[in-house]
Design a protein that fits this description.
Elements (H helix, E strand, L loop, with lengths): L8 H4 L2 H9 L3 H6 L16 E4 L14 H14 L6 E6 L8 H10 L4 E6 L6 E2 L12 E5 L1 E2 L14 E5 L5 H9 L6 E15 L5 E15 L5 E5 L4 E2 L1
Length: about 240
């Protein structure tokens, strides 16, 4: 094959292939692709999946991690983003350093976010879940780890939610029952590492239930479509 001087093969790649390449890269490297060619410039800003963790921030040899840099990275990406965001994921040990995350989640709610993953370090005390989560009414999948859940009184549920994953989250019986019943399309519930809780599952479309923890009892009589259940650790199941 002969050489083609001046040929920009990167710019000639179909948009769909470029998008697939970007989704395979860490967000930090995806942003850097802007320098590759004219077609790639700011193309990362149309990515529909944004995944952040502490590896997103470049740390020079001998320097320390700066939690502010991670938050600035998130804010910059959201500020420059153009188009819908289907998935947003954040895993960090410094959640309490980001009081502005409620604003970020409000922004995501206006972007039609479908999948949300928020995972905070379990060494920290349980922190209140951002109230803006409950404004994300188009969510299909929600994963929360390490929060204290207290939905606002005006919260009516997630009408589109099909997958709910809760781990190391502090909830009361009233909250968990209200949350499940407020998700009429819920198909899969994963509830891990919860201590001494009793609740009734009211899930008309629930098919898969995964439970792990010290539960007092679980009432499943209102889950007619349930086809698979996994329960671990001192749990009495009443059907």
């Amino acid at each position: 094959m002969g050489d083609c001087p001046g040929k920009d093969f990167l710019s000639d790649l179909p948009h769909g292939i470029i998008e697939r390449i970007l989704t395979k890269l860490p967000i930090r490297d995806a942003v850097r692709t802007s320098v590759l060619s004219s077609q790639w410039r700011y193309l990362w800003a149309t990515m529909t999946q944004l995944v952040f963790d502490e590896n997103c921030v470049f740390v020079r040899h001998g320097s320390t991690f700066s939690e502010k840099k991670l938050f600035n990275c998130i804010m910059q990406c959201l500020f420059l983003h153009n188009g819908p965001i289907k998935k947003f994921s954040l895993s960090t040990s410094y959640w309490d350093k980001y009081p502005e995350m409620d604003q970020c989640l409000l922004f995501l709610s206006r972007k039609g976010i479908k999948e949300l993953v928020l995972d905070i370090d379990l060494l920290n005390p349980l922190l209140p879940a951002p109230s803006a989560i409950f404004f994300c009414q188009q969510l299909i999948s929600l994963t929360l780890c390490g929060f204290e859940l207290k939905p606002p009184r005006t919260f009516q549920g997630f009408p589109c939610l099909k997958y709910l994953n809760l781990e190391f989250d502090a909830v009361t019986t009233e909250v968990v029952e209200s949350l499940i019943s407020g998700c009429p399309l819920l198909e899969k519930l994963k509830f891990l590492n919860v201590d001494h809780l009793a609740f009734t599952v009211r899930g008309p479309n629930l098919k898969h239930l995964i439970l792990e923890g010290d539960f007092k009892y679980i009432n499943l009589e209102h889950a007619p479509l349930l086809v698979a259940i996994s329960v671990e650790i001192n749990t009495e199941v009443r059907c």
